[in-house]
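Cross-posting from the modeling subforum.

Setting up a comparison between two proteins and wanted a second pair of eyes on the formatting. Protein 1 (sequence, then structure tokens):
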Amino acid sequence: FLERKTQSIQFKRSVARELDKAGIAYKQDYCEGIYSTDFLIERDGKRIALECKANVGRDLEKTVAILELLKLGLECGRGLIVVPYHDNEAPSEFVCVSDLASRLST
């Protein structure tokens, strides 16, 4: 359990580094009412919720459902699940951390 928790924290830090390198402003651990997201990006009057998922193989359906709730509750037009890696069968909401900046620019 502790190892997974540490991996999760380290992964969120790597996502923050990627956002910083790309010059993308964000709010980390953003909360609004009962809704919270790992990162919230606000630009051009639009919001994007980012949920980090260090353990790609765990609770995928739950993670996608949570993202849909966050998009509604935080009034985000877009939401992405950031993962360390993914395969071609991953849902479209999933983005590899190394591709994050390019996906956010579209």
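Protein 2 (same layout):
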Amino acid sequence: MKTDPYSRMSRLGFCAFAALVCAVPTAAQEEPAFGFGPAEPASAAESPADSADSGVLSLSGEASAAFDAYTDDLDSVFAGKVRLDASGSRGEAHIGFAFTASGSASGTASGTASIAVDEGWVRAFFGKADLEAGVRKIVWGKADSEGPLDAINPVDFSDLRVTGQMDRKIARPMLRAGFSAGDFTRLEGVFVPAFVPNRFALSGRWAPAALDESFNTLFAVLQSGGQSDVAQTLSAKIASAFAPETADPKYPQYGLRLTTSFASQDIGIQYLYGNRKTPSVSVDSTKLFVAQSDPLESENPTLVFNPDALRISCDRFHQAGIDWASVVATLNIRAEAALHLTEDLFGSDGAVSNPDFAWSFGFDRDIAGFTILAQGFGSIVLMHDRIGVSPDDCQGDADATSTRILARISRSFFRGELDFSATVVSGIEDRDWMCLGEISSTRDALSIGCKGGLFGGRVDGDLGQYRGNGWVSAYLTYRF
């Protein structure tokens, strides 16, 4: 029997991660267990509390109230985070909760409230090694935002007013092991047992046009033709792919990352086996409609829409990546590059996305008190000439390249009490853009500020489709 080279690669990657996890207790043998010397018998007067690892417990968090104004609505939002941390010489633990309550001041939308674990994990130290388990958000790579190597956690795109990199990440259950070889070299492995894709709004002002318009139109056609049951089946299929209620354990993800520094150069290499966070959608036009015959009128079959002709999948892929950071001519430079190999190695399967090459390059520098940051990031679809037509091919409408440019300027005034920042993101191929601005005043633990965003450009672009969703927010935040 022939061995599938793609499957062989995934098995080798998993074995490498398993070896790292198994090596953690072994590495501990090089030094005293848990950082302590040999256990000594406790005296009769010593209580369990006296012999336990003394630690530090801290409570922190923040609460924020804001009013968000659109051109056609006004929202009130109350949000907060509470974090509890414990640390000692044997290990440390963290748990954080995030809660949000919002409502429309104009009464055009009903209020919502939610509370969830933002992150929660436990880490144990074994000399130069450590082992960690819990619900985490982690960052891989050196890009300021949207770097191709930062692919462990899915991202929440259901509300584009949320712009912070960590705020948009969706925490996932994972096991992480690490080993430090010296002061500048570290090997890290991550295992995520279950998969969820990026989160998108399926309706409303932040729903992607492809979902909010195309599928709604299809539902209307099916319902008008008396096929409401088919429309409901199709709706459930789309929702399960783009917003699953539970994590799917069929697709575990794992990766290895090695970072080191030498001669003012920071280098990282990594391997990741997982799923694309954005589903691929294609339609098998040959099976889009199937004939159903009435036993009494078999000569006049009726064409019925077939939901199974719609193929939605989060493609498996191997990622091999490298990143680099250094200071060159007073510029702090960061670069990333990654090759993604999907199961469509020859670009001929319309239901699976083609392999691609992704990149990021950026720098920042302080000039006259201002911090200037610029970054470009994008991807190149390999074997683009073999892509079929839409909707049979999931990339039928995709360009060969996708490029965005980000520029940000920021500065602090009055000894850090007043902060200002302005960010512009522009899509080159889509010819669209997004502008974000914020100004805030902070004294001690209290911050008051205003921020907002505008979208523009071609209406069929990823950013331009939201050009009617300009917003401004006034907020008050207290940190403790």
